[in-house]
Amino acid sequence: MSRRPSRLDAWPRAFDPAVELDWGDPVVSRRLLREHLDQTHDGASRRLRVIDEHVPRLLRLLPHPPAEVLDAACGPGLYAVRLARAGHRVTALDVGPAVVAHAQRLARERPAGGRVSARVGDLRALAERDRFDAAVLIYHVLEAFPRRQQVGVLRRLGVALRAGAPLIVEMRLRPDQDEGRISSWDVVNGSLLSDRRHLLLVETVHDRAANTYVLRETAVFDDGTTSVQQTSSALTRFAAIPALFTRAGLRVEAVYDGWSRFRGTALSESVLVVARRS
Ligand SMILES: C[S@@+](CC[C@H](N)C(=O)[O-])C[C@H]1O[C@@H](n2cnc3c(N)ncnc32)[C@H](O)[C@@H]1O
């Protein structure tokens, strides 16, 4: 949204609907795809070499192939095509049209890509029942929904699974900064906000009491106007994970410390939760 600088909110508010990123917007999705595929950072998707390290771990947590796997919020399909290569049949779902188009392209080009079916869809409206042998929700997608929507998304994923099938959810438990705000700026040739060269102001705000984290970007253009977008996260404390999944009709079977095989603790920065329909 375009605003005069004097109209900007001094501090970002988590999940402010006026500026929260619309992942399903075609222009945003096209710009996001660039970030997903950029091998200089792990901003939207992780770099391919990291994904290649994750896939063997994921395969150990999934049923033996061939299984029907739902890659929920698949982004450009980087995990999906690798799971297909291991023998799974993967339904890859994401709300972003450009990232789904990329996943479809990969599926056409890659060996075993025929086992990937990628389509645009919103997890908040997922309506499949008893269909999948497993589902994955990878790279901090769950916390990007407001708290009141997280249970609904988990519940829909659970309903889409066959009884006893695993749901694997990667959750970030804490941001990599202390409480408060960190600001920086740069002049960039393009960003999620524009394809033109502009000044980009970046802030991250960690509110420990609310347990939220916001990344706000403000583009300042040559004519003095600004454009703002942010992504918010509603984080869950380690001890509260089982209750979150229970509210969604799921039973937590294991919580791992990040992508390791070790159990998560309250000190974990991120966890992989393995849950099943109860
Ligand atoms: C951080 S990216 C992770 C993508 C992918 N899992 C990966 O690791 O490469 C978050 C993804 O969630 C998708 N997303 C956000 N809200 C969604 C929704 N309501 N339904 C489906 N996908 C959504 C975005 O479009 C984006 O591709």
UniProtKB/TrEMBL annotation:
CDD domains: AdoMet_MTases (cd02440). InterPro entries: Methyltransf_25, SAM-dependent_MTases_sf. The keyword Methyltransferase applies. Keywords: Methyltransferase, S-adenosyl-L-methionine, Transferase. GO terms for biological process: methylation. Pfam families: Methyltransf_25 (PF13649). Residues 69-163 form the Methyltransferase domain. The keyword Transcription regulation does not apply. One of its GO terms (molecular function) is methyltransferase activity. This is Class I SAM-dependent methyltransferase. The lineage of its organism: Bacteria, Bacillati, Candidatus Dormiibacterota, Candidatus Dormibacteria, Candidatus Aeolococcales.
